[in-house]
Amino acid sequence: MFDTQPETTTETGPNKVDLHVGARVRLRRKLLGLSQDGLAARIDLTFQQVQKYERGSNRISASKLYEIAQALQCKVEHFFEGLETVETEAPVQVEQDVNSFLCTPEGIELAGGFPKIRSAKLRRRVLELVNTLAEGGN
Question: Would 2 be classed as within a structural domain?
């Protein structure tokens, strides 16, 4: 019998495009404060399937990506933004750090609140506090 499913992994792991799209799905979902269960319910899947999509271990079909975009209130193109960087050059460490930061609930909350601090001096002090804590390993 023929396997009609496309190969989703390379010899070294998941396809780079699938990893990128999955990471963008996860980031958008987290920015909206939506759980994997919540997204799964909106697109009629299990949360395990959403996990596999976000990890890049399963490819997302075009129709399912469209449904995900609708559920996450964005355009399909959103999931491919920055892909050229992934394909043509090594990711910049700062970009990796920002992505890691925004993939945490605390990061999303801080990113939302930080710009609301009107005083530039106070924002600088908050940044100094974060840097001091990071240097101390706490």
Answer: no
